[in-house]
Write a structure and sequence with these properties.
About 35% of the residues lie in helices and about 15% in strands. By secondary structure, the protein is of the alpha/beta class. The protein binds (2R)-2,3-dihydroxypropanoic acid.
Length: about 325
């Protein structure tokens, strides 16, 4: 039997591409260009499976509804799958899977890194040294905000959030609270002595740091808006490693300029790779280029997980990480 024909829409780490070559009749994206809508439509008719990712155009009804579609499974490279219209996929019986778990720790590391960086002014300090503007130590130089022992609030308390809580609670003695419409088990809540709150606002109001861990898209678009930012403490920091569209970026800029909150640490943006110009000039924000899962170990694991889902599908099994 011939091997399924699959397409990786972007360049993957070598070990994951090699595995794809071993298992499938795979087409790689050697020059790593972003596929156009037309290329994605053509892919739908030419491949049995497509492995897209967050930086592709959204695979929507228009793309899924091409004539003579051959593609039967979209195995996303990424845990977030807002780059795929899952309702449109369901409507035409195309299976969708993602890559959870393997990126949990690394994404949590980046959330904690952003929290520490923005609170302790690490980016600003590094720029000072590199620009040869450092005059030397003195008791009042670059005073910042203490992290240890502070209150950390979570919007969404799934796997990545819990991995952040693990570091923050056990490593930094932080008090954990969260809002999640689908809360974890009582055992997990107890592990972090976490306070379960009844609304997003309740978390925002009482936290020194707020970290976002909910999916993007849908009802979560602009979840953090002007109104919600205004209930945060003036001394509080917002951390986003989830999806850019969860935060109204214009409202955030206004809040930062007006001193409504103290700062923000952002790994994701509404119009990646474009970042709202105002943010670039602010010292009280730390900006990263969507690095959450960006370690060799994790990106290889994501590729292998995506391939395992395709493999299971063509063996006639249910892909382990099926989301639609
Ligand atoms: C994820 O896996 O969701 C990362 O943000 C990259 O897509």
């Amino acid at each position: 039997m011939s091997k399924p024909k699959i397409l990786l829409t972007r360049k993957w780490p070598e070990a994951a591409e090699s595995k794809a070559q071993e298992l499938f009749d795979v087409t790689l994206n050697a020059d790593d260009h972003k596929f156009s809508i037309d290329e994605l439509k053509a892919a739908m008719t030419n491949y049995d499976a497509i492995c897209p990712t967050v930086s592709d155009f959204q695979i929507n009804a228009d793309i899924l509804n091409v004539a003579n579609r051959r593609c039967k499974i979209i195995a996303n490279f990424g845990v977030g799958f807002n780059n795929i219209d899952t309702n449109a996929a369901k409507a035409v019986d195309v299976v969708v899977s993602n890559t959870p778990e393997v990126l949990t720790d690394c994404t949590a590391d980046i959330a904690m890194g952003l929290l520490l960086s923005v609170a302790r002014r690490l980016g600003e300090g590094e720029r000072l040294v590199r620009n040869k503007k450092w005059d030397g130590w003195c008791p009042t130089h670059m005073l910042a905000t203490k992290v240890t022992g502070k209150k950390l609030g979570f919007i969404g308390f799934g796997r990545i959030a819990q991995a952040v809580a693990q570091k923050a609670y056990f490593g930094f003695d932080m008090a954990i609270s969260f809002y999640d419409p689908y809360p974890p088990s009582a055992q997990i809540i107890e592990k972090y002595k976490a306070k379960q709150l009844g609304s997003v606002e309740a978390v925002l109001q009482e936290s020194d740091f707020v970290t976002l861990h909910c999916p993007g898209g849908g009802d979560n678009i602009n979840l953090i808006n002007t109104e919600r930012l205004s209930v945060m403490k003036k001394t509080a920091f917002l951390i986003n490693t989830a999806r850019g569209d969860v935060v109204d970026e214009a409202a955030l800029v206004q809040a930062l300029k007006a001193g409504v909150i103290a700062g923000a640490g952002l790994d994701v943006f509404v119009k990646e790779p474009n970042v709202t110009e105002d943010l670039l000039a602010m010292d009280n924000v730390v900006l990263l280029p969507h690095l959450g899962s960006a370690t060799t170990e994790t990106r290889v694991a994501m590729g292998l997980r995506s391939l395992a889902n395709v493999e299971a599908f063509f063996k006639g099994d249910k892909p382990h990480d099926r989301v639609a």
